[in-house]
């Protein structure tokens, strides 16, 4: 079988690695903007082109007799790549544009949740002008401000964090109105978790829960990033969660898949990513994405026991209910090494040298290869993943690996450490009362 991986980041490196483990012995091809050595090393051939150049990607897929393609990033989904591949008779793990909209149009997504009575939706309003904007911010009092379009995970600002007061929230909202709608919603208080699932249009196969860390610096300080690292537990929950916390989140995702099909006439096939926050009133939806998270994919895909090619085929063919999708009961810790100064003023074109990383997995992200050497681009560079029976053991593996990667790099050493996890547990206990 010929398989295509679209995208050149850490998430796609994890996808390619899972495909390469398949007993089906697939021949792997890739499309990416810059040569990621981790992906390229697993491929028969690579096309270096922007993933949003849909016609070129489809032409390449046809020329290589691709049977199924896995679309990693959100931008090609928003450009309609899944539509074009399916229209050309090629199976796609990635939703068509009108249902992928649940990620790339946050205003549409919130209205969709409201119109279809999807649980977990916070109080919100969508604004296209300043009319009523300041009054609504004052009415809610504690708000999160979101641009409606794609921002790479860095556009959301919340009060008590990046926004000191309602005046700052109003000014930030105004700045977003130039060329985009803005979503103003209540600022939910709790602990965030990510729940992801393979989806074939009707059926969902859930992965273990993961917690991402957006802030650039230790102790959750500094600006938001695309994600500095993440961890998962061996029991598929997280240390601050109870068994009865997860089922409502799963039901929300099932209801979302069903309502998307009913509302648009298009089945959602690919990955549904639910970013939830566990509050005193249960799980609430921060946002949905139409693809795996980065770094969260690097936590769950190495644990996938079921053959990845079988899973991809089942997603594309609508037969996921016939497949028992299983994950190893192991804990994982993923940590990113990023360019110094990231995210505001990152250094670029600096060499990255990987030393002895022990038992950790290595995934290249926003780097490029030239003359046999690897260089940074200015975004997240290299991720390492420790896998063991406990989070503490997995963290030690990941941390050891990070310390043996040489370059003008920065990382958070606290992700997965017992002290930080205990803070999460204490916070959740305080919220539950």
What does this structure look like?
The protein has 14 helices and 25 strands. It has helices at 10-20, 37-40, 54-63, 74-78, 81-87, 97-104, 106-115, 133-140, 166-176, 243-264, 296-300, 308-317, 391-402, 418-432, and strands spanning 2-6, 27-32, 45-48, 68-71, 91-93, 124-127, 143-147, 157-158, 182-186, 191-200, 204-206, 211-212, 215-217, 221-224, 229-232, 269-279, 282-289, 331-339, 351-354, 361-364, 367-370, 373-376, 382-388, 405-406, 409-410. Strands 12, 15, 18, 20, 23 and 25 form a six-stranded antiparallel beta sheet that branches. The chain has a five-stranded parallel beta sheet with strand order 3-2-1-4-5, sandwiched between helices. Strands 6-9-7-8 form a four-stranded antiparallel beta sheet, with helices on both faces. α6 (97-104) crosses α7 (106-115). The chain is globular.
The backbone outline, from C-alpha atoms, is globular
Fraction of residues in helix: 25-40%
Instruction: Report the uncertain regions.
Output: none
Q: Could you give the count of β-strands?
A: 25
Derived from helix and strand composition plus strand pairing, the structural class reads alpha+beta
Average pLDDT across residues?
Answer: 96
**Fraction in beta strands:** 25-35%
Classify the oligomer: single chain
Distance between the termini: 54 Å
Q: Describe the main β-sheet briefly.
A: 6 strands, antiparallel
Specify Rg, calculated over alpha carbons.
21 Å
Number of helices: 14
